[in-house]
Amino acid sequence: xxxxxxxxxxxxxxxxxxxxxxxxxxxxxxxxxxxxxxxxxxxxxxxxxxxxxxxxxxxxxxxxxxxxxxxxxxxxxxxxxxxxxxxxxxxxxxxxxxxxxxxxxxxxxxxxxxxxxxxxxxxxxxxxxxxxxxxxxxxxxxxxxxxxxxxxxxxxxxxxxxxxxxxxxxxxxxxxxxxxxxxxxxxxxxxxxxxxxxxxxxxxxxxxxxxxxxxxxxxxxxxxxxxxxxxxxxxxxxxxxx
Length: 242
Description:
This protein is mainly beta. The chain is built from 1 helix and 13 strands; from the N terminus they run αβββββββββββββ.
């Protein structure tokens, strides 16, 4: 009987210790930021910021901000034989998307302290603000590669043919001449968090997002342009929680 009581006491102490350790992983809010790669962006699609707070043990309320470069699906990069610089032939405008999102994260699996993976189902939606900025090319003047001019690509300008383009303009050149194009966005995703410390968040998110604007966005005038941009995305994120 004495041995049974001793074993029982040890088991109770172990369960209490486990419960305390599990409780030590509890958190009320978190802030994360990440780098996004998606099917409508370049090498780096953009950046993501998200603030979340727990409503209960399985649900978080989220507020998100995404800053993205959105490409036309038929964009192709070419290399100038004169300079070796890259440019996108036929592209007349950039689309920079600023997305505001409100949503919910639903905890499907909770991780243990310093082990395992926490998995969440993510849903979010909100307004999109599209900044349509002119895409500049550098082209020859009088067929001389030593004298050039930077200007917005125009498919109807005979000076903007393949043989006259030397490369693209400077980064963010013309962004001050952007036009605003409003829209909405929505996404569904799965979020995998595998941080080892209570105060830190590390993981990735994969899902589908749709950006829809109120009219077609004219990115490449000689091709079909659309108002809806569906994307598959992957976001690597890092952050903190408390």
